[in-house]
Specification:
The chain has four helices and seven strands, in the order ααβββαβαβββ. It has 141 residues and is an alpha+beta fold. It has a single domain, classed as 2-Layer Sandwich (Beta-Lactamase), CATH 3.30.450. The strands form two sheets. The protein has a five-stranded antiparallel beta sheet with strand order 3-2-1-7-6. Helix 1 runs antiparallel to helix 2. The protein is globular, with a radius of gyration of 17 Å. The termini are far apart.
């Protein structure tokens, strides 16, 4: 008979193996030399697998213009010409600070610029992670 502890440990190990497999697939995409859009689309797909969510955005920093622009998107209607000011909105704050951000209740957060869209599409939380190279934020996922 398997104990609850053993079952939970097994489930965690399987989940970790799935995450590592997705990370390996994403790494292969990056080193395979695909064009940027295809690379971002595949990374978004793998990130969705890891996170267990259909909603993923990868925003690319345009520091000259001071905005984040759409790189790839899964699971929800977001305008292709989206430009988020760095320092504004959830993703803009991640880009400005270089710090991850978790918001547990986006539909009811008065600072959420997309609260109505989140309610409409059943989006409940936000997790923004900086994409960095050395000390520079290249984007947000």
């Amino acid at each position: 008979m398997i104990s609850n502890e053993e079952a939970e440990a097994h489930e965690a190990a399987v989940r970790r193996a799935d995450e590592l497999a997705a990370l390996l697939r994403a790494t292969r995409v990056v080193v395979s030399g695909l064009d940027l859009q295809e690379t971002l689309a595949r990374i978004a797909h793998e990130a969705a697998q890891i996170a267990g969510t259909p909603h993923i955005k990868i925003l690319i920093a345009d520091h000259q213009a001071g905005v984040l622009r759409m790189g790839a998107c899964l699971g929800g209607p977001v305008p292709a010409d989206l430009a988020v000011k760095i320092g504004h909105s959830y993703s803009g704050r991640v880009a400005a600070t270089g710090e991850p951000l978790f918001v547990p209740d986006t539909p009811n957060d008065p600072t959420n610029l997309l609260a109505a869209r989140d309610r409409e599409h059943g989006i409940r939380t936000y997790l923004g992670l900086p994409i960095e190279l050395r000390d520079t934020v290249l984007g947000v996922r």
